[in-house]
Amino acid sequence: MKSTRLFSCHANTIMPIFVMLMLLIPAISYANADSIWVCCSNLFFSGEKITIEGKVNELLGDAQVALRIVGPNGKIVNIAQLDVEDDKSFRTEFIAGGAMEKAGQGKYTVFATYGGQQMAPTIFDFAFDWTTANQQNGNTITLSVPNSPVYYNDRIMIKGSIHPLYPATPQVKISVTNPDNNVVFSQFVWIDEQTGIFEKNLETNLGSPITGAYTVTAKYKDSEITKSFQFKAEQKPTDFTSGQSNLKFPIIKTNNVYYSDGDDIIISGSIANYDVGFPVQMQILDSKGDMVDVMQSQALSDGTFHVSFKAGGPEWTIDGQYEIRAQYKNYIFSTYFDYQKDAESIEDTSNMSMQEENKMLQQQISSLRLQVQTLENKIDNLNQIIQEQVKVIYQWVVTR
Q1: Distance of CA 30 to the CA centre of its chain
Q2: What is the mean pLDDT of the chain?
Q3: Most buried residue among 158, 202, 227, 239 by CB atoms closer than 10 A?
Q4: How many CB atoms lie within 10 A of CB 160?
């Protein structure tokens, strides 16, 4: 993959030469066939990762996408020169904060120019945290859904917050309505007592999905808020000339969430830009983090893979939450399931109270958040190194 050069405009590090060049780029007309979007939310908070993606209609040699992000105060907070991949896509990531905190909360606009034509801009919201987001919006409830197209078998992350939270009402009702106004999902979701945050990860193959605008409604006591997202009832597009999927991150899942001795565990997943010859390595870790099994799988030409095996064995000595940790090249990704040696224990577990189930989900969420935090720390360290290199280059340019 080609490199991406990202310059984060923190205080006293804005490079006047590049900023002037960005501002002087002519906005001749919006390139209708070129597009840009923010993945996979429309509301971000300090410390969260923001991913910007897009696609051009035609490759123009070595031409790059010139990107700039403008805050609610009209000042540029980020600029970048992005390489366009062979499949005509481009992508960059950065952490919300820094210059954005100085520019303030509100709406941020992403501008992109390619080959002298400016793409239609896209917008996202930024807030310091969930509490300030509530104060800013003047609501007791906030809701965030994907603002880029969602495809069949994608996952939809629905998240929001409640403020103030009433202890007697610890759940929010989430419902999803399809373009025909039929309810395809409805469930009460637990709210974190400390932060007021609620999250729900949905799969889009609910019922008989159809293409169009889906509406998500979150209702808490007398407050209600709705947001919509676009869904396409088709598999995510594939570049058949290269045989590579446009999925950006590896995906892994199992055929069930509870297993006992002898049950069939089927692991399936997909990998973007799969290279033949690099297997997917998998480890099974018990609730103490000890490895109980190891296996590998070769992905098919479209990047999908699967492997099946029986639950249990001499090393499967304890009950609890097990992790399937997979690695492909430098990507490490996981999924979880619960294991009980006795099948009757599975039946008991499936009848656990909502409070116990919520506790188990919170433990999984905490584990995932820890992994995300570790990745974000690595990204922050890399950004610091890049910033230092940019300063050295800039000083060298100025002194010449």
Answers
A1: 27
A2: 75
A3: 158
A4: 27
Q: Quick one: pLDDT at residue 69?
A: 93
Q: What is the mean pLDDT of residues 10-37?
A: 47
Q: Cα–Cα distances in Å, from 162 out to 43, 135, 158, 172, 240?
A: 15, 11, 14, 8, 45
**Eight-state DSSP code of residue 143:** E
Q: Are 290 and 312 spatial neighbours (Cβ–Cβ below 8 Å)?
A: no
Report the SS3 class of residue 131: helix
Rounded distance between C-alpha atoms, residue 107 and residue 124, angstroms: 6
β-bridge mates for residue 43, sequence order: 125
Q: Which residues pair with 80 in a beta bridge?
A: 6, 67
Half-sphere exposure of 267 (CA within 13 A, CB side): 28
- Contacts of 285-292 with C-beta under 8 Å, sequence gap 24+, read 285/322, 285/323, 285/325, 286/315, 286/316, 286/317, 286/318, 286/320, 286/322, 286/339, 287/318, 287/319, 287/320, 287/321, 287/322, 288/318, 289/323, 290/315, 291/315, 292/316, 292/322
**Percent of the chain predicted with pLDDT > 90:** 10
**346 phi, psi to nearest 5 deg:** -65, -45
AA letter at 15: M
Per-residue pLDDT, 31: 44
Higher pLDDT, 8 or 378: 378
The verdict on pTM exceeding 0.85 is no
The mean pLDDT value for 343-350 works out to 52
